[in-house]
Design goal:
Blueprint: E1 3-15, E2 19-22, E3 25-28, E4 32-33, H1 41-53, H2 59-62, H3 75-88, E5 91-101, H4 111-122, E6 129-134, H5 140-143, E7 147-158
Parallel strand pairs: 5-6
Antiparallel strand pairs: 1-4, 1-7, 2-3, 5-7
């Protein structure tokens, strides 16, 4: 059986707004992010991990910010399309592990909704996806409250047949 690992990373600077989109969930917050789409760092990192594992490039290649179609787009569309492309190449998701990096907002109250949204878009069981959050103890741009980042790792396996 053949396996592939992919790694993804995304970051967005905070800006005007009253919410963040994280893992497909609208989370009330004192700021928004500066982004071409909805700025969902969780989904953007996850798309990059999927594309990387399947050797399909990166999110910018598939959904360029120069394309007006993606202006203010719901990132769940990107995730569904990324997963469809990975599946079309003969790969299946084994698991995804996601780490959100920010001082705020608190993620724990939103984890269940995030896992449900991601599972739906990835056609994955709850035990195939893990989302966790960490702070930087006040260090770096995340610690200073300037922005938010996310790391994602996926494992794919070649589908039989």
């Amino acid at each position: 059986m053949s396996f592939r690992i992919g790694n993804g990373y995304d970051v967005h600077r905070f800006g005007p707004g009253d919410h963040l989109m994280l893992g497909g969930v609208r989370i009330p917050f004192t700021q928004g992010v500066i982004a071409h789409s909805d700025g969902d760092v969780v989904i953007h990192a996850l798309c990059d991990a999927l594309f990387g594992a399947a050797a399909l490039g990166d999110i910018g290649r598939h959904f360029p910010d120069s394309n007006p179609e993606y202006r203010n787009a719901d990132s769940r569309i990107f995730l569904r399309r990324a997963m469809a492309q990975v599946t079309a190449q003969g790969w299946a998701l084994v698991n995804a592990d996601i780490t959100l990096v920010a001082q705020a907002p608190r993620i724990a109250p939103h984890l269940r909704a995030m896992l449900a949204a991601l599972g739906e878009d990835l056609h994955a069981a709850p035990d195939q996806i893990n989302v966790k959050a960490t702070t930087t103890e006040g260090l770096g741009f995340e610690g200073r409250g300037e922005g938010i980042a996310c790391h994602a790792v996926v494992l794919l396996r070649r589908r039989p047949g």
